[in-house]
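During the practical work, I worked with a single protein chain and the tokens that describe its fold, as given directly below.
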Amino acid sequence: MKELKNSVQKTFALMEYFTPQKPEWGVTELAKEIGSNKSTVFRFLAQMHTIGILDKNDENEKYRLGLKLFELGNRVELRTALVEKTHPVLETVAKRITETVHIAVLKDHQVFYIDKVESPQGLKISSQIGSSLPAYATSLGKVLLAFLPEDQQKRSLDHLYDELGAIALTGNTITDKSQMIKELALIRKREYAIDREEFEVGLICVAIPIFNQNQQVVASLSASGPANRFNEDEVKNYVAILKEGASAIQDKIGNFKLT
């Protein structure tokens, strides 16, 4: 335990040396700076590089802070700036709609689930907080894509359809980019999206965008349920309740925007 504690302390102590004024360090110069053994510093830097805390500049063999810290920082931001403020709203929406409610953001062209409240009717949906799904096959993802600025939407669709190749997850999945472009235009016009068993057979979802107070889309809110219980005739009612929830969330999150 003492060794682990010391290792953690040394790791954080080493990270303190990576500053805007000195963003990169070589093993030898860092060892000299902190007055430590070169092999010890090399071992720590190599371990930090392996787990993503540090990146390595292949041109000069020096280390710099890695994307893992950015990712962890975003998780903290999501928790404190979004999830903690919005969870009570999700509970209210789920109780009114009596179906499972999700909130998600767009991350690396995929829909990333950040919170969930199960249906009070008892049926469990297999989605997991922290998991990512193809944006083109979910109502949460489609509504986020629909309200992106035009250039960002194009980049996302090019990546999903041209680079990756959209895979049919069910017989209803939209795998043609031109068809998806038309779908997104319709979603933007009516201000909600429907997943008609496009991700999972037997599951229907309806989602609406969540805007911050600068009118930037930051997340999406959905209700999901089994096709044999999810009454599409009541979609307008579901959308109205979801929009009330989105409005309450907007009041709570201010100018939050995931970068």
Observations:
- The CA atoms of residues 37 and 160 lie 48 Å apart.
- The helical segments are 2-15, 27-34, 38-50, 67-97, 139-146, 150-163, 177-190, 235-253.
- Confidence is low (pLDDT under 50) at residues 1-5.
